[in-house]
Structures are given as structure tokens and as C-alpha cells.
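Subject — a protein and its fold
Fields — amino acid sequence, C-alpha cells
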Amino acid sequence: MKALADLVFDNRFARLGDAFSTAVLPEPLDEPRLVVASPAAMALLDLDPAEADSELFAKLFSGHKLWSDAEPRAMVYAGHQFGVYNPRLGDGRGLLLGEVVNAAGEHWDLHLKGAGQTPYSRMGDGRAVLR
């Protein structure tokens, strides 16, 4: 099992470039606190469950602090919005913090919802899920 600092990142999605995502830093929350952690999700990342008890865990998974290898990105997509095709919609409050590779070679996304405003927030504050 790994410590938080030992997670291995391979940010394949970020390397696709600006046609697929926009670099955005999360807007930190004041005094983030952990409500619940999933032991099953932590196992997928090879992360030691004891890490959830640390203050650093809440800060990293809330976007208050970033891993040095994280590359936060707001994902871009296309679709119809209000009856009109829009070629550049995107995540208005969610960020892909990065992709972690576990010992089995599997890639797992660390995605933060309620991360604050992105270029796709459409006048919102990017926090709706936290109300």
C-alpha cells in the first residue's frame, strides 16, 4: 500500500491538449474536512487506508493542495444546449485532478466535483454540489 505522496500519475488526458480540456486550478475551500472515504476506491489506487485519517488527505482530495504531478483540467465536450448545437461545452464545476496508475497498470481518474468555476460554469460558482 502507498502513501499519498507515492501515488504515480500518468496524465494521458491532459496530454490530448486544449481541444479536449482546459487547464484550471481548483478554488480551495477554507478548512476542508473529510466526511467519508471509500476503502474500495483507495484499494484501486493502492492507497493505504490509514492515509484517510490525515489532514493532507482532505486537502488533496478537496483541491486545497495539489500533488506535484497533478494536472487539473476541466473537460470539454460538444452537444446541444437550449436547442442549439455548441461545439465547446464543458465541466462547469468539475475538474479532473489527474490520472493515477496502480501496481496493476490500471489508470484511475481523480475527479473533483464542486471544484469552483471553470471556463464552462455559465455564471455559476462551480460549487452547486456542495450546497
